[in-house]
Amino acid sequence: MTVYSFEKKYRRLRKELIAGALVLGSVFLSGTCWYWLLEKWSFIEAAYMTMITLSTVGFMEVHPLDDKSRLFTIALILTGVITIGYILNRLTEALIQGYFQEGIKQRQEKKVIDTLEHHCIICGFGRTAHHVALEFMSEEIPFIIIESRPEPAEEAKLLGYIVIQGDATLDESLINAKIDKAVCLVSALTSDAENLYTVLSAKTLNPKIRAIARASTEEAVLKLQRAGADAVVSPFITGGRRLAAAALRPQVMDFVDGILTGTDRAFYMEEFLIDPRFCPCVGQTLSEAKLRLQSGALVLAIRRSEGSLIGGPTGETQLMAGDLLICMGTPEQLRLLNQILGPIRPSPAVRPPKHH
Fold this sequence. Notes:
- This protein has 356 residues and is of the alpha/beta class.
- The chain has 3 domains: 3-101, Orthogonal Bundle (Helix Hairpins), CATH 1.10.287.70; 117-239, 3-Layer(aba) Sandwich (Rossmann fold); 265-340, 2-Layer Sandwich (Alpha-Beta Plaits), CATH 3.30.70.
- The chain is built from 14 helices and 10 strands.
- Strand 5, helix 9 (218-227) and strand 6 form a beta-alpha-beta unit.
- Helix 2 crosses helix 3 (67-97).
- Its main location: membrane.
């Protein structure tokens, strides 16, 4: 059963059950009014007569009935049996198909979504997004998937991911994914146009969110950058470059891949933001801060707040407020570095490495 078909059938079944209950209530009210107003019985007697008639328990009449009232009672029995049978049929279908259990599960998922903050949003669940989700899951980063196609959405749910069935290009879907509280959006839809619309919508709803988009062509890369994407990745362009690098510099590629993905579980790379509210090293040089000596982690580069990049900073390089340190080390070294620097909070959607 796909997510889309479940939601559609669940709404239909709920409407049918409500309609059946309303019809049954109307039948009960009609029978009670007949015996109460036309037969001049008391209200309790009229309601009792209607109840035993609809339930077909076989009790005797409260008072003798004339032919007209007996014909009405026959019609009341037929209407009641049909209505109750219809309701029981709908309830049986709901129990067999597991609609109630799935409905409870969806309400629980909605509660989880409502409590999320500083999470990531993955738009689409194709081959690219599948690997993005695996990386986020391994790094224990909270995320939500927005997928409009039934089969990929069901696949993601079976893997234990939180999935919102909807079109990621629509504001409604992004709002349901709590984009106002999210820190990162990865648009990995198959169409460049859809990725463009998604980035535009995301930046409109949350200008501070970091938007990363997938692109198929160089022209799409430029358009997505103009639309406000903080990073654009083309699997074809990047894949071609990595293939060439693997052929020309295989050992370098193995080393870099191991660090970025943590394949060898030895060294990692992390980003650390120099926050002047917490960091005691603001204004100091790397030599004065003694980050390497105290933690063992290596500062590979520094991204200044205005965007300039300092690769291979020397001991005389000064640490300034708003700097982003790109560091390499073991999990324990990076954890120590995080404590030395404040402690500071990692840059958006990044957190200190966990122990493996």
